[in-house]
Write a structure and sequence with these properties.
Elements lengths: L2 H10 L5 H28 L1
């Protein structure tokens, strides 16, 4: 699975397999979780 081609296919309306969609959603949720943890850590540091 190529992440960038999957994102392009989703926005262009092409068909994407369910597995690719769920993997991509998991990656996005994981990235959002990590970013929120980093922001919270930096905010507490000040």
């Amino acid at each position: 699975m190529d992440v960038f081609s999957t994102i392009g296919a989703l926005f262009s309306g092409e068909r994407v397999s369910h597995a690719d969609t769920f993997i991509l959603a998991g990656v996005v949720l994981f990235a959002a979780f990590i970013i929120s943890k980093i922001r919270r850590h930096l905010k507490a540091r000040k």
